[in-house]
Amino acid sequence: MSNIIDVFNPRPNRELSEQETMDCLPCQVMSSFFALGFGGYLATGQPFKYTDKERGQGITLAEFEKRNPLWWKYSLRGFGSVLIAFGIVRGTEGWIWNKDKKYKKF
């Protein structure tokens, strides 16, 4: 059955076993690295650098600043900081916060 048909005629719900819902160590590592990396990218303001790419497209510095208002810059920087905090919490979850945590066996 295709995924499109599942939207209109969904499969019946089932109870998931504990093994299916357990966290896995590679998942935890990848999510913490992604959150730290992308959060660092946003928090440092890298998306808002006026570069040669914008100059080549004929966008002036004033127009570039108009397209990226301060509230937008501060919002994304704040979101980047939240992602960094999430990455730290997620990365240290198994060995600092929750020492009894069990991971999925492969």
TrEMBL record:
Domain of life: Eukaryota
InterPro entries: Mitochondrial_unc_protein
Organism of this sequence: Zygosaccharomyces rouxii
Protein name (record): DUF4536 domain-containing protein
